[in-house]
Design goal:
Radius of gyration: 23 Å
Number of domains: 2
Number of strands: 9
Distance between the termini: 59 Å
Strand content: 35-45%
Helix content: 10-25%
Structural class: alpha+beta
């Protein structure tokens, strides 16, 4: 399993494109305060490296499954993620201009960190157990997917009163 690649050993020459098939070790990550686990722990990936004008361009492609809590009901959610990421690194460039990749450290490409961040960027806005997830009841906290219900005797918090008045005026 690979978490980093020594770029010195690859010896990519200007104008050359190098393809490597590697197994990248994926780390769990936190999103919205929740822990998400990529699976399997290591995935086969394709890494392309090319040199142009003293800079290096990296392209990384792989697929993984991510599992963790649903963002609406906190039940188990699982989804497939296809990742296609690119990085540009010019050792002579300035990092504040985006010319130096943060994943290249001491002439090593940190694949584990790059893959983790690429997965996070490829995820949808909300990770759901199913597209029509009803979520949790805002009054009692029960899972509305298992037990759909309403609270007829519910008294809203009086602090919401001014917003309700504004809603009524705008309707």
């Amino acid at each position: 399993m690979t978490t980093s690649i020594d770029l010195r050993r690859l010896r990519v020459r200007p104008g050359e494109l190098r393809r490597e098939r590697i197994d990248v070790e994926l780390e769990p990550f936190r999103l919205g305060g929740q822990r998400y686990e990529p699976s399997p722990a290591a995935v086969p990936a394709e890494l392309e490296i090319s040199q142009a004008s003293g800079a290096t361009v990296f392209a990384l492609r792989f697929e993984a499954r991510v599992s963790g809590p649903c963002m609406r009901c906190l039940g188990h959610a699982e989804l497939e993620v296809a990742v296609a990421a690119r990085e540009f690194h010019d050792p002579a460039g300035r990092s504040d201009e985006g010319l130096r990749s943060e994943y290249v450290v001491d002439e090593k490409l940190e694949l584990g960190a790059w893959a983790r961040d690429a997965i996070a960027l490829a995820l949808p806005e909300q990770i759901l157990c199913r597209p029509d997830c009803a979520g949790l009841c805002p009054v009692c906290g029960k899972d509305l997917n298992d037990e759909p219900h309403e609270h007829a005797d519910f008294e809203p918090d009086p602090r919401w009163g001014p917003l309700e008045e504004l809603r009524d005026k705008l309707s």
